[in-house]
Amino acid sequence: MTIIDKEPASAIDLIVEGFDAAGYICDRHIATSIYLSQKLDKPILVEGPPGVGKTELAKAASELLNAPLIRLQCYEGLDESKALYEWKYGKQLLYTQILKEKLGDLLEDAVGLDQSMTKLHQFGDSFFSEEFLEARPLMQALKSEGQTVLLIDEIDKSDHEFEAYLLEILSDYQISVPEIGTIKARTKPLVFLTSNNTREMSDALKRRCLHLYIPFPDADLERRIIKTRVPELDENLRNQLVSFVQQLRTQDLKKLPAVSETIDWARTLLLLHAENLDTELVRNTLNMLLKFEEDIDNMNTEVPKFIAVAQKEAR
Amino acid sequence: MDRPLAEFVEMLRYADIPVSISESLDAAVTVQLIGYEDRALLKDALSQVMAKTVEDHESFSRCFDEFFSYDVELNLEEALPPELSEETSSEDSENFDQDSGSDDQEMPANQNAGEGGAGSGAGEARQTSPDGNLVDMLEQNDRTALTMAMNDAAGAVNLSGIVLMTQRGLFTRRIMEEMGLDQVNREITARQEGGDEEGSQDLAGRLESLFDTVRDLVDRQLAQTSSGKSKQFRQDILKNVRLSNIEQRDFRIMREIVRRMAKRLTDMNSRVRKVKNRGHLDIRKTMRRNVAYDGILFETHWKQKHKDRPRVLAVCDVSGSVASVARFLLLFLYSLNEVLPKVRSFAFSGTLGEVTELFDQYGPEDAVPLAIDKFGGRSTDYGRAMEDFKELIFDELDNRTTVIFLGDGRSNGSDPRIDILKEIKARSKRVIWLNPERKSIWGSGDSEMLRIAPYCTVADTCNSLNKLELVIRDLLKTS
């Protein structure tokens, strides 16, 4: 990519702009990690609370690089046959059937068992060959001709064993298939791993990745995000809304509202043709921001106070 | 890798950020790409390459600021031509790092090589220092000579041996004395007496700024060596110290150790699960599965060994007699709850109640005191607790359940209801009794341990974290 070959500072600025155009508002910190991962050929391990745009980052990067996004959703019990490769059993079966039929013709002139076996060994062994290999997401990313963006989503949900499978891909961009050998990447994909930190990733995995932590955005960044995502929303209301959410995040809540929730809320307010935050409106729509009954109950009393501050700040 | 980076890596390691060799190589490439000029960008970039957890990011940020903002500021720079002072200021920071290695043997060589522009000044200073003319050096604003004298003095007083915060003043003083503090003080006094008020104030001012510089040097060395070491040191100590002797302020560190321990234990356990996919081929199931493939065995099915994670019921005594230990036993229970899904915890002193929900709801800082508040404070009554336990949970005991009692077995004279314990033992897989008291005093006074012990699968002393870990490891291994 041409952007990458520029001076670091200007390349990073260009990445920020590129993301901007793709509708993903980010700071230089995030852009730096994209730049570094391209330069150092390293995957990026993205951590942060849910809803801050970890998955979105991969999507935006795929748009920016104009490379297809290959996504692997991790879950407990995910194994290599679903993530790396699988043999096409059915086709292999058919192959043996055909072989059975053709065997007579092929071994026609062979005399005795020994000769037949020698003859048989002369044929290429295609039972375990790439034709019978069903490529799963990780393999797809390696076999792709052009550059791809590989998103390994919620890696923390997978098992320890799966993490170990990944190590080879992450460090050398290759997969070893015991029956065939090593398959190397044609073009190195840009790899994102996302984690909600439900468990600590192993040191081996961390060592192979760049570590990017995306926190909740500050007010300014969040305003810009809302502006891009919900452009129809009136500026004054946008400011109030962001200020309200920012105040909410300072509270002790079971689940803090993330950016995605702010966007949802902004869309809701737009639908309701709201012009200003008022207590009634906020109380009715608070369930867009808070996802626990307890949190909503606790915050109900605080709503008027937050609105007052938000309106003051927005002015 | 260039020198400043190598030293920075060293510093990070001391600050408990585990920077591996491959990571430091990455860092070197990053530095090559980005350069040292744009500090904000460099910080962004390096933080992603070298710090791999959120906590590490914080300490990284601190270390970075400390390391790269540090320049030798003697506040006397006006005296130097501007271009020279710029040139040396970046070099000086390097010299300081070398010094912290306390290898004063190689210092002069490095110094001269590093100093370059100010080389001649350094040469002169070398001949006349270390003692004798600190006054002159201060008067002449000879930055190079001062820096060298400071480095020499730091080496002479073995600054790299600094471990504790409280030693800062001492080391600062020693370095200053080594550099010739007394002489300067005498000079100042002499000038005052001689009526040269201005001269003495001027010199005192310069001395003060030198003091600041030396203090910075000491602080920096402390940051480099002590924080990491002392943390490790503390952790090692804490693991072995008697639980009752651990102070409140170490609670945080304890929590971390306990958490790590509990995690390691469950990690060990979770690996066992994979084993179940090996072993004997289950012919019947394999045949049935492969009917679709014309009877050719493509998919195999193995006889599975079921490895159950243990169902653990933990009962913790929180009465006055074990109050000092109870916090930590509860803390351990809490951590166990975090990593093992099937732990149910109970606490008692008089009556017994379940605290599992409490643990689920609150963080450990809140949950542990709450549990003590709720159930603690009364005098122990094991009989009552046993009755409550039987009523609450007896039906759920089965041959896979492990019951852990944490308590001293001192029942204040009341009947400990050994009969119930016997029933529990008969029904559950295992009963483990962990007692913070030494075995030699079991049975003394109102201790019922000698009567209790026979009805436990294991009854042991457990008064340090290491012991606790051993017990829990056994628990997971044999399950």
Structural notes for this entry:
The complex is a heterodimer of chains A (315) and B (479). By secondary structure, chain A is an alpha/beta fold. Chain A folds into 3 domains: 3-83 and 139-213, Rossmann fold; 85-131, no CATH class; 219-314. Chain A has 15 helices and 9 strands. Chain A has helices at residues 8-21, 28-40, 54-65, 80-83, 89-106, 112-122, 137-143, 160-172, 203-208, 219-229, 235-248, 259-271, 279-285, 293-300, 303-314; strands at residues 44-47, 69-73, 85-87, 133-135, 149-153, 174-177, 181-184, 190-195, 210-213. The longest helix of chain A is centred in the N-terminal third of the chain and has 18 residues, at 89-106. Chain A is elongated. The model of chain A has no long low-confidence stretch (mean pLDDT 87). In chain B, α20 (449-452) links the parallel β5 and β6. Chain B is built from 21 helices and 6 strands. Chain B is flat, with a radius of gyration of 33 Å. Chain B folds into 2 domains: 70-236, no CATH class; 256-275 and 308-477, Rossmann fold. By secondary structure, chain B is α/β, with parallel strands linked by helices. Helix content of chain B is 60%, strand content 7%. Chain A binds chain B through residues 8-9, 12, 28-29, 32-33, 36, 39-40, 42, 44-45, 47, 89-90, 92-93, 96-97, 160-161, 197, 200, 203, 206-213, and chain B through 18, 20, 22-23, 26, 29-30, 33-35, 38, 40-41, 44-45, 47-49, 51-54, 57, 263, 267, 270-271, 274, 293-294, 296, 298-299.
